[in-house]
Write a structure and sequence with these properties.
Strand order of the largest sheet: 5-4-1-8-9-10-11-12-13
Number of helices: 8
Number of domains: 1
Largest sheet: 9 strands, mixed
Oligomer: single chain
Shape: globular
CATH topology: UDP-N-acetylmuramoyl-L-alanine:D-glutamate ligase
Structural class: alpha/beta
CATH superfamily: Ribokinase
Helix content: 25-40%
CATH architecture: 3-Layer(aba) Sandwich
Amino acid sequence: MTSPANRVLVVGSLHYDIMVDAPHLPARGETVTGSRWYPKFGGKGGNQAVAAARCGCETVMLGAVGGDGFAPFLLDHLEQAGVSREFIEIRDDSASGMSVAVSDEQGDYGAVIVSGVNLEIDPGTLDNARLWQGAGILLLQNEVTESLNIAAAGMARAKGIRVCLNAAPARPLGEELEPLVDILVVNALEARELCDVPVDDLASAGRAAAALAGRFMVAIVTAGAEGVAVVAAGYERFCLPAEPVDLVSTHGAGDVFTGTLCAALASGCDLVSAVRAANLAAARHVSARPAG
């Protein structure tokens, strides 16, 4: 008997994040006095894998860490969250990915990432039957090389596994990858990069999603505090307003949204129910005081 295909497989990045709280983001040449700093598990791939696992969905991740002091922190966090780390490569001759993010008093942030070993993941590591066993959806992001994403998406397509791409950070989407993507998730900035439709409210998010739906089976545009818009084959266009919350920080909200979305879809939810679950999870995330 074939095992059910209800796992989320994440191929993506792991970062050791250094978070800084400050009254405002620094302007060019400005030194701002912050109130605290703390380490945080991160990387879009890692964050999305953890979000999926916390939904109770079996989650496997393929990624890499370096031979440095950041690696144990990242690996331990994956294990504690219930994400399989069987396919996380440890490369002693490379540096782990990391980032520095500054959050202001309004909950907005700016960040700089240094990808390190995330750009060295060998697409050949995808050729392992155990990696794909039981996978119902493949989740990708733009913090690894496009060649890795193409290889992963191509293998998923050959196996009949849905492919979700969170096209973040924004970068041009290559002609080889685009036809392999079933579900596209982007925020306002990324949507404008891909379809040249400015997004500043829920209506414009809907227009951007409609423009992208000409290229993808499912196009989802998140618009921050405005909500989320979805256009998909077989569904009428639908928009969900953001849940009313007291904002603490938007950092990582998109990752929680995408990981939860994929977990819900892998578990058998329809698209509308999955988007509702993801929207609620993101709202809870932005209103929670981060540990540290």
